[in-house]
Amino acid sequence: MAAALPVVLALAALFDGTLLWPMLGLDAAIAAVALADLFLGATRLVQARRTVARVLSVGRDNPITVQLESRARRGLRVRLMDDLPLELTASGLPAEAEVPARGRAEVTYQVRPSQRGTFRLGDHHVRYLTPLGLWWRQLRLPAGDDVRVYPDVRAVRTYELLARQNREALMARAARLRGGETEFERLREHLRDDPFRNIDWKATARRQKLIVREHQKERDQTVVCVLDAGRLMTAETQGLTHFDHALNATLMMGHVAARSGDQIGLVAFDHQIRAYLPPVAGARATQRLVRAAYDLQPAMVDTDFSVAFDLLSRRLRKRALVVVFTQVVDDVSARRLLSFMRGLPRRHLALAVLFRDSDVDRLTDVGASAYELDLYVAGAAAEAALWRERLVRDVKAAGALVVHAAPDRVTPAVVSEYLEIKAKQLL
Questions:
Q1: Is the pTM for the entire model greater than 0.90?
Q2: By residue range, what is the domain housing residue 85?
Q3: Could you say which of 94, 201, 213, 337 is the most buried, measured as most Cβ atoms within 10 Å of its Cβ?
């Protein structure tokens, strides 16, 4: 708008040369006002302070709050951008906030980590207009916050909250399978999935509402999670590798096992042992799992099951539930898995966790409208699905239990299978 009048004079000066000097004078006046505005806006008027949890969950939206503080005598409209590592995808940036005169305002945005490990959040970049609005003042505000990206620890907090509210049924049918037919533990209110045979009719008559008897699971049992960290576990589903999905399931099952009084251990391997935790019990068992595996990444090497077999043969003397998380895509990897399962001592109970290929499952549906399928593609997908079903049967024939689920459904499926094993007293 300030340049409109000089433009008009410039056009008029084409026909009347006497307007040249007024035009130049007006240009000089505008330039002087702009320089004065630049000088008035040179002061650093905004400060920023970041608030972020030291532990973030991979594959989840984690909030980050930035508090903006203004020393200006006028209200400022501030635009904010943060320096973030490539492994953290931000939503809500750039952000804007109205900061009152000599006041404060908060900006909150979300980051979704795609990898585990330690990362550093960088500097803030803020912009605001000078007093006359002719310039943007941009500041780089030094900042540095180190965060650790762990497996999905927020899912553990969710389970713990549900457990405190006696609603484990919302997580993998936990309430229905709770306890089994062992030692009496306590009385509690009836939940929808509780068997009728567990109702305590005397307590129900006294309290005038359904009360069930809850039995205590056998404690001090051993669970060892064996994580394949080879190249086949680098495949991604919904932004997370299969190894991340396996680690999330391990963390959740470890928390449930520790809460039940069981010992929980960990083995991560590819062509060598990457991590080993001997089975321990107690409230800190889950924390040990997180600290030991939060920065593990699958490697582009072939998996050698013999290294895990040798370790378990030497270290695991007591009967245990051995939960193997792996991915199988061809006959070679299938033979390695079957050899490992058959080689485990008979005193152990083996559970193989295999990841379904959701894309192949969709391709087998010839009527799917999202794809332009021909019979050859559908036939190839059906053949691959049949091969997977044969593999599941072979693993079961080798004496192991099997969980065959899509990556995003592995965690509830594994927890449910563990609770069912406990309820049936298979250990």
A1: no
A2: 46-150
A3: 337
